[in-house]
Amino acid sequence: MSNPLLEIRDLHARVEGHEILKGINLTIHSGEVHSIMGPNGSGKSTLAQVLAGRETYEVTAGEVWMEGKNLLELDPEERACVGLFLAFQYPVEIPGVSTQYFLKAAVNAVRKYRGQDELDAVDFLERIKEKLALVDMDERFLNRALNEGFSGGEKKRNEVFQMAVLEPRLAVLDETDSGLDIDALRIVADGVNRLRGADRAFLVITHYQRLLNYIVPDFVHVLIDGRIVRSGGKELALELEQHGYANYEAGVGV
Amino acid sequence: MVSQQEQSLTPTEHDPLQQWSQSEYKYGFYTDIETETVPPGLNEDVIRLISAKKQEPQWLLDWRLKAYHHWLTMTEPQWPNLHYPPIDYQAISYYSAPKIKKQPQSLDEVDPELLRTYEKLGIPLHEREILAGVAVDAVFDSVSVATTFKGKLAEQGIIFCSISEAVHQYPDLVREYLGSVVPYSDNFFATLNSAVFTDGSFVYVPRGVRCPMELSTYFRINAMATGQFERTLIVAEAGSFVSYLEGCTAPMRDENQLHAAVVELLALDDATIKYSTIQNWYPGDKEGKGGIYNFVTKRGKCQGRNSHISWTQVETGSAITWKYPSCILQGDGSVGEFYSVALTNHYQQADTGTKMIHIGRDTSSTIVSKGISAGFGQNTYRGQVKILKAAENARNYTQCDSMLMGEQCGAHTFPYIEVKNSTARMEHEATTSKIGEDQLFYCNQRGISNEDAVNMIVNGFCREVLRELPMEFAVEAQKLLEVSLEGSVG
Ligand SMILES: Nc1ncnc2c1ncn2[C@@H]1O[C@H](COP(=O)(O)OP(=O)(O)O)[C@@H](O)[C@H]1O
Ligand SMILES: [Mg+2]
């Protein structure tokens, strides 16, 4: 088997003195789609944020390797540049900064890191237009201030659009399905599916099984109270749908 | 020292030159014209001397003296939210002829630190030379550009010259309009300026003429050395249009700590004046030492029907800023606008805002103020909107946003509203925000560094103001904000 794209070993993290992640182990190879499911407050977003390098979360033990790089030693922007992308559960608004301007800054920051020339506005526009179609977004989106006044669904589509433009190696989707109606959910899932490929992996975080009908995972992991208590194939998601998390929660004595 | 006891000079109306030479002799001034500086202190003689040196007509001297005597009865305003040690007005020298310094012959001889700043600001090469004080004949290019444009303006009857020159060449115009918007008795600093102003700009746009270029895009370098007590007067006749740019993004160091400028704008029927400022005077060092005190009076009078005056300012410099560009909306249907970005970093303090006085019917005003505080900076917005009784259907929109970077800085807002006509429609919005850790992290996660993220967020915050600036100026202003905030986050 090829080298893993991401390897998490015994990861512990805390926030404001509380231990939230209590020893996560997870290995992801290129081309795979993993799903993490768990009840509210189990630490799903914490895991996503720790991977992306948010300082409010303190890593107290463990290691994370991405393609031979010690991820925990990199700044958040470096992690992005080596190909880690996080679709936020709560995308942030930046008033007065157009989506296009923001994304161009992002693309050029990544290109610069990789020693590539910066794209000018015209080249950039060419490249992103086709990606808009991927999430059924209108060109007018580009001139609106980033996420400002966007509906919940628009924000999530914007995350997937950005992912399409930035072409990450590993994309972490944090509850990208929450707050979406069924049509928006289909659009988002279609966008993700079209970005699946042999040289990319996904970590799809969700509370509900619903999303996994559209983005069918190769592996499902159940996260309870900061630990992965069970891993399996896509059928595990269906089982959770039927029985809920109660069994597992009882098991870990929450 | 000039002493009060000594006999004062009799103004000899017909021979100001004689008066000048007498005073030189009498008080032992340097005889070398090039390097002359009046000893510190303010009294009638000093004012007479300034007037004489500039060979001014009697009416102007009289006006200055009236201002001076009025000033003696005034006290420095205490209401601004500014803290600085008392200013000793007798310790200031009120006239200093342009000094010929030893000029560098090329950029190679200029302080590399200064050059790096110019580069960061994206100032064109030939302008860097002028700014750095490279001998003028070495930068022949830009000077000839200025001359060409001056010719073009003259063809349309537009006057654009120094106010001293205007006093001699267009005395009737200057006499009619000087002090017509900001009277000599207006306020402590404006009155001081009226007594001792040394130079500034004069613009006159004739009836129906649309000024074909941004004034001072090409001249701003030349117009720069105008000193401590600048006086600018812009008159736009009926149906004319002019856009005036003041200042420069390059950091301006000045030995004079106190600056008290006056700007008067007058717009007649259907005339439009756009006045844009970028102010980047020395703010003092990181500990708050040194830096310019900037006490400015700027006022525009929309005298004519449907006239329009728009102030746009980007203030990043000075240790102390006291400045309220205002509009008197007298003509029916006239429009006043104020767009401002004020940034205070380190120990800078700014108390700035505007006044919109609605007198005519159907007058409208817009105020968009963006205050950014970083370090220990203190930023105060002070704005007044006054709707007088006759102002039927007046409208005002005020938006006042503050951004805080860090824990030690402050933002303060003092809106004063006075409405004497019930048909007025007023809208006021105010926000205070911090550059959120969540915003920075979101940018980081897309590969954007903290520094670039801060710049982007700040520029977004200021967008409504920056877009009011002429394109070229806007790009410079954006870079200036970046340079001014360097190292303030992360
Ligand atoms: N910034 C924070 N400050 C304090 N507590 C936090 C913070 N972020 C998360 N937590 C706590 O950590 C636990 C896990 O949260 P989270 O990772 O968001 O869960 P999930 O995404 O699975 O719903 C919760 O108890 C939550 O209250
Ligand atoms: Mg979550």
User: In DSSP terms, counting alpha (H) and pi (I) runs of 4 or more, how many helices of chain B?
Assistant: 13
What is the level 1 CATH name of the domain at 6-92 and 168-253 in chain A?
Alpha Beta
- Based on DSSP secondary structure assignment, what is the total number of beta strands of chain B? 18
Mean pLDDT of chain A: 92
Q: Which two chains have the most extensive interface, and how many residues on each?
A: A-B, 31 and 23 residues
Shape verdict of chain A: globular
Which class do the helix and strand fractions of chain A yield?
alpha/beta
The largest β sheet of chain A comes out as: 6 strands, mixed
The major pleated sheet of chain B works out as: 11 strands, mixed
End-to-end CA span of chain A: 37 Å
Helix percent of chain B reads 25-40%
Rg of chain B, nearest Å: 23 Å
What layout of secondary structure does this protein have?
The complex is a heterodimer of chains A (about 250) and B (about 500).
Chain A: E1 6-15, E2 18-28, E3 33-37, H1 44-52, E4 58-66, E5 69-70, H2 76-81, E6 84-87, E7 94-98, H3 99-113, H4 121-134, E8 145-146, H5 152-166, E9 170-174, H6 182-195, E10 201-206, E11 219-224, E12 227-232, H7 235-243, H8 246-252
Parallel strand pairs in A: 3-10, 3-11, 6-9, 9-10
Antiparallel strand pairs in A: 1-2, 1-4, 4-5, 7-8, 11-12
Chain B: H1 16-27, H2 44-53, H3 58-72, H4 112-121, H5 125-131, H6 140-155, E1 159-162, H7 163-169, H8 171-177, H9 188-196, E2 201-205, E3 231-236, E4 241-247, E5 258-259, E6 262-267, E7 272-279, E8 293-302, E9 308-315, E10 320-323, E11 326-329, E12 335-344, E13 349-358, E14 364-374, E15 378-387, E16 395-405, E17 410-419, E18 425-434, H10 437-445, H11 450-461, H12 463-466, H13 471-485
Parallel strand pairs in B: 2-3, 3-6, 4-7, 5-8, 6-8, 7-9, 8-10, 8-11, 9-12, 10-13, 11-13, 12-14, 13-15, 14-16, 15-17, 16-18
Antiparallel strand pairs in B: 1-2
Bound molecules: adenosine-5'-diphosphate (ADP) and magnesium ion (MG).
